[in-house]
Write a structure and sequence with these properties.
By secondary structure, the chain is mostly helical. The chain has 24 helices and 7 strands. Strands 1-3-2-4-5 form a 5-stranded mixed β-sheet. The protein has a two-stranded antiparallel sheet with strand order 6-7. It is elongated and about 95 Å long.
């Protein structure tokens, strides 16, 4: 390492580089300016990442730097290799070593030492483990730096003003595999505390406060809780839908049997808990069978995130797809068994909005705003129909257009031409004795910026851009707000009413036992008959995920309200939902805790 003697505000810069990479050579001049500006506050670490296929001889240069390091001259060799203008080969390497006054006999011998080659290979393996795919790749205080490589952009990142430090801290937290799940569960826990403490009046006033367009009671005047569960949650369903569509196109679900598996599991996950409930409840309490029907996908995926190392990506996708199908079935239950809450005429408007998005996709419209407008229309139509508008996010995910993977060569030519013209214009300004800051006033600046933006934009389809832009908001804003407004159920009910305990036990066991049993049995039966494919991975891990699918959500609470319009049973059923959810979460967490981590196949070099 180089520098870093300062005791305070020290920043570590790690570069994965290749001595024959032309871009590493350009970046070196920026790093020198940064070292001059920051002095001993900057610790510079270089790690070898030679790309022998693109730059033949680069591995030898890395070994040469390590050989010089054995004589205490690594950094001198490092600087000399990057400063050497002529094509670098073994002869040039030996000439550089001689100019540095190295012991040439020892240097030549060390070049053939397999230990030095192994040292370079260790850096390569370390880089791949950290996601390095090209050089130069920059890490600042253990976080990859993906910003601009110009001096002022990097200086701001290294100096870390208050805003940059807050952003870096947030990124470091977000990079933790469990961060999203912890935030979600913390928000739910705070909501429960608020709803069952002296803070309850204020909490209830907040979540039931009316916010909207128009007077109170208008179609767009909803409570804070409704906006979070029906409005903001559409963003979460958009992310789920994009993940499912990606897998259906070229991933796990490209096999129709794998795609149908979570759908059949959802059917079992609705029928089985209803059967468990009805085994305890007949007569006046029987209508509550629908309360344990729905899975709180946000909470389920939040708990799964905490066990990220033990749960494969394929299993998470299975759970997400299952939950979407489960939500659709729950909405159908509301429509069929509680028709008073459904306005079928608005479903036609929802269908029209969906058709509009399908046409936009067919016509290859890549602008985002037509899809957003149609999604808003779909959301409003579903809301007026009495169906949760949150599922409009699924429709948007289904119809946001993908684009064929572009050929990088024309894009590289476009970007290189734009930057070369900027560089040429800058040289002309210097020759004329004018300030380089005037470059922004030249016509070439606007032309180059538009071409660079177009090239960068082409790398991502509208669906991919939407996912990148929205995913962090979904994890750290939408879901915590939803949890805070949805989980605050008062733990108070009349358990002395006739049959109250049967309702509580039926709902709780329906969620904690019936739902995972239905998922496992339906999946097993379908795979045995060849209709479906059992999700890959350990059976114990799948069982843990099935238990977590017993966590209920606000739709379960709505089912309880719809089932018991009068009497004390609705409040009892809600407590049953919370009890069953807690039991399911505990059983799922315990099962996952003792399940083996998924085995991943090592990728060949």
């Amino acid at each position: 390492m180089r520098g870093g003697a300062a005791r305070s505000r020290r920043v570590t810069v790690v570069i994965y580089g290749d001595y024959l990479c032309p871009y590493c050579r350009i970046l070196r001049t920026v790093l020198e300016r940064l070292r001059q500006a920051l002095g001993e506050r900057m610790m510079y670490v270089f790690r070898h990442f030679p790309n022998e296929r693109a730059h033949p001889g680069s591995e030898l240069m890395s070994i040469g730097a390590e050989a010089a390091g054995r004589q205490g001259r690594f950094w001198e060799m490092h600087d000399a290799l990057y400063a050497y203008e002529a094509p670098l080969d073994r002869k040039a390497l030996l000439a550089i070593a001689a100019s540095l006054g190295l012991d040439m006999a020892r240097f030549t011998s060390d070049l053939a030492d397999p230990k030095l080659r192994k040292r370079v290979e260790e850096d390569l393996a370390d880089g791949r483990a950290n996601g390095v795919t090209a050089t130069p790749t920059i890490f600042v205080d253990d976080l990859r730096y993906d910003g601009a490589w110009d001096f002022y952009s990097m200086l701001e990142a290294l100096e870390q003003p208050v805003g940059a430090r807050v952003q870096r801290t947030a990124r470091a937290f977000a990079n933790l595999p469990t961060s999203a799940g912890l935030v979600l569960l913390a928000a739910a826990g705070i909501a429960l505390i608020c709803a069952n403490s002296p803070l309850a009046p204020g909490y209830q006033a907040l979540v039931h406060a009316q916010v909207g367009i128009g007077p109170t009671g208008s179609v767009l005047s909803l409570s804070v809780a409704e906006w979070c569960s029906e409005g903001l949650l559409a963003i979460f369903f958009l992310i789920l839908g994009l993940e499912i569509r990606r897998e259906a196109t070229a991933g796990t679900f490209s096999d129709w049997r794998a795609a149908v598996t979570p759908l059949l599991a959802a059917l079992g996950g609705v029928v089985a808990p209803a059967a468990v409930y009805l085994a305890f409840n007949q007569g006046p309490t029987a209508p509550g069978w629908s309360a344990p029907a729905d899975t709180g996908v946000a909470f389920t995926l939040g708990v799964l995130a905490i066990f990220g190392a033990r749960v494969s990506a394929g299993l998470k996708l299975f759970v997400a797809t299952y939950a979407v199908a489960d939500d659709v079935l729950s909405i159908l239950i509301l429509a069929v068994f509680y028709p008073r809450s459904i306005h079928a005429e608005w479903l036609l408007a929802a269908a029209a909005a969906t058709v509009a998005m399908a046409l936009f996709n067919r016509w290859r419209i890549y602008a985002t705003w037509p899809y957003l407008a149609a999604t808003l229309g779909l959301w409003l139509s579903l809301h007026l129909a009495g169906v949760s508008g949150a599922i409009s996010g699924i429709a948007l995910a289904a119809f946001l257009p993908p684009r064929p993977v572009p050929n990088p060569r024309p894009l590289l030519a476009q970007a290189a031409t734009a930057l070369a013209e900027l560089e040429h214009a800058e040289r002309e300004l210097k020759t004329a004795g004018r300030d380089r800051r005037e470059l922004q006033q030249e016509p070439v600046w606007d032309w180059a910026s538009r071409n660079l933006s177009a090239a960068a934009e082409r790398l991502l389809s509208p669906a991919e851009r939407a996912e990148r832009a929205v995913a962090p908001w979904s994890s750290y804003v939408v879901l915590p707000l939803f949890a805070f407004t949805a989980a605050g159920v008062a733990l108070a009910a009349d358990l002395q009413a006739p049959g109250a305990w049967r309702v509580l036990v039926g709902v709780a066991l329906g969620l904690a036992i019936g739902k995972p049993a239905g998922i496992v049995l339906a999946t097993w039966a379908a795979s045995r008959t060849g209709l479906a494919v059992f999700p890959a991975g350990a059976a114990l891990t799948f069982l843990g995920a099935a238990f977590l699918c017993g966590i209920g959500d606000p739709l379960s609470l709505l089912m309880a309200e719809q089932a018991f319009q009068t009497g004390p049973y609705a409040a009892v059923a809600k407590i049953g939902v919370l009890t069953g959810s807690a039991l399911a979460a505990g059983l799922g967490a315990l099962t996952l805790l003792f399940s083996p981590a998924p085995v991943t196949q090592a990728k060949p070099d």
